[in-house]
Design brief:
heterodimer; A: alpha+beta; Hypothetical Protein Pfu-838710-001; eight-stranded antiparallel beta barrel; 6 helices; 11 strands; globular; B: mainly alpha; 8 helices; nucleus (chain A); transcription (chain A); activator (chain A); Mediator_Med18 (chain A)
């Protein structure tokens, strides 16, 4: 369980270069690549829905049970088939050429691969359930995330999740860059690509046609009860917010839109 | 019978309790005090800097480091100027312990105080500096205003700066002269695509909509 304190911002495509250069100067670092593949799983049985339709015995109160969407995430690097080593993707990302990227991945000219695949083809996945961010007037968003690592091969993942009672709902890619500010604040700048692999062929489509970039600055704190660390993290984020204020408008995300709890409408 | 000299408040001390009378007139008190005060302020700022670095998990902000570094440098140059100014006075004095100094108990302190030879790590610093200066090829012992020497020195400084510049990433920062000479047209080290599509609409998806997709899969 980890408490994630964050601030977010939208970066116009035109400002991308400027923002990246400023962040390189501010953090004194070269950007590192941020690339991961995500699958959102939803439960097969929606208890809230069943309850609302009185489809199950009403003597059982299901209101106490909270179901959540599950997110499975693994990192990837692009590589061309036949070549052993994954390409360094930072320059590819900085080229900001999404049309080419989508075409390449969709056509299989480059594949998405795991950095640390074992001999059995097993991948390291992170299994995440996130709570709705805390309510109330606050300076930064604060969200509880539960996370474990699992090892599965890509083909076994589906049946693994099926056994848990979950089916795939949406698959997407995150492509971007990350920085570390002051040694504590993670800054991620990314774009989101939806993957549709239904008819046997992969279609990769950026979710935002205007190709804006999204920025998330966050600090993870191990325990929500550790008030001094939480306060330190909040002030670190506030400092970043102040320092980049003229360039990037960091704001608190809308907690309602980050709610991955299951409700009764299907 | 002659009276012993009256002490403060009229108390007459015993003659044997009187401290021996020393002649301090030839001690360069002003010069030593001036150096001492400057050394004190230097140790204080060094302690403060050390404390600040050791305290937090991360380094202090660079602005703070830089300003403290400037303070230390100013204090160092003040001390060196002070010592240089009083060089003749200080160099011609010999230091020795007084009769009543507890030599056996304070042997360590005494050897430190009387030591004229630099300690081994200081010797190493001096050797390093001398080696560095030799590499520069500048004779810094000459205190004349030879323009040629100055030019040589400035030239070597520039060379070092250029070398240091290669170790870091500087870009998109140009002087007016460099812009006039077209030097700002250098390719970007990260090959950032500088083409901007003009037909891209300014408004697009907000980060909240993107987060909604990331957390719920809804578009």
């Amino acid at each position: 369980m980890v408490q994630e304190l964050s601030l977010v911002s939208t970066i116009n495509k035109k400002e991308f270069n400027f923002v990246i250069n400023s962040l390189i100067a501010l953090t004194g670092q070269k950007p590192r690549s941020l690339t991961n593949e995500n699958i959102i799983y939803s439960p097969i049985i929606n208890l809230k829905y069943l309850q609302s339709k009185q489809a199950i015995n009403n003597s059982v109160n299901l209101n106490q049970i909270e179901q959540h969407l599950v997110k499975i995430r693994r990192s990837w690097q692009m590589y061309s088939p036949g070549k052993k080593n994954p390409n360094v993707v930072v320059n590819e990302i900085l080229s900001n050429d999404n049309q080419l990227f989508m075409k390449k991945v969709g056509a299989g000219d480059v594949k998405l691969g795991e950095r640390d695949t074992t001999n059995d083809g097993e991948n390291q996945y992170s299994f995440q359930i996130s709570d709705i961010p805390a309510a109330g007037k606050r300076k930064v968003s604060s969200q509880t995330i539960y996370e474990v690592n699992i090892k599965q091969s890509a083909t076994a993942l589906r049946s693994y999740m099926m056994n848990l009672g979950y089916v795939e709902k949406q698959r997407f890619l995150i492509k971007g860059l990350k920085f570390l500010y002051n040694g504590v604040v993670n800054i991620e700048i990314f774009q989101v690509f939806a993957i549709d692999a239904t008819d046997g062929k992969t279609v990769v489509q950026i979710i935002d046609g205007s190709e804006n970039w999204f920025l998330k600055a966050y600090v993870n704190v191990a325990k929500i009860t550790d008030i001094s660390l939480i306060n330190k993290a909040s002030s670190d984020l506030a400092l970043l917010q102040k320092n980049v204020g003229n360039l990037i408008k960091l704001k608190i995300p809308d907690r309602g839109l980050m709610d991955s709890r299951i409700n009764d409408n299907l | 019978m002659s009276q012993p000299p009256a002490g403060p408040r009229g108390i007459t001390p015993q003659a044997q309790q009187l401290p021996p009378q020393y002649d301090y007139s030839s001690v360069p008190i002003n010069e030593l005090e001036a150096t001492r005060i400057k050394l004190l302020s230097l140790t204080r700022s060094l302690h403060k800097l050390q404390h600040e670095i050791a305290q937090g998990a991360t380094l202090p902000r660079w602005e703070s480091l830089h300003s403290q570094y400037n303070v230390v440098i100013t204090q160092l140059s003040a001390i060196s100027a002070e010592i240089f100014q009083n060089y003749d006075t200080l160099a011609s004095r010999n230091v020795y312990p007084l009769n009543n100094f507890p030599v056996t108990q304070q042997e360590g302190l005494l050897t430190t105080l009387l030591r004229k030879k630099p300690s081994p790590e200081v010797t190493a610093w001096i050797e390093n500096a001398e080696e560095f200066i030799t590499k520069l090829g500048v004779d810094v012992t000459k205190h004349n205003d030879d323009d040629e020497d100055k030019e040589d020195f400035i030239e070597s400084c520039l060379e070092i700066m250029e070398k240091e510049k290669e170790n870091h990433n500087f870009f998109s920062v140009f002087t007016q002269q460099e812009i006039d000479n077209g030097l700002n047209q250098q390719p970007h080290p990260y090959k950032i695509n500088n083409k901007v599509d003009e037909d891209v609409p300014t408004m697009g998806m907000d980060v909240n909509q993107a987060l909604n997709f990331i957390y719920t899969g809804k578009l």
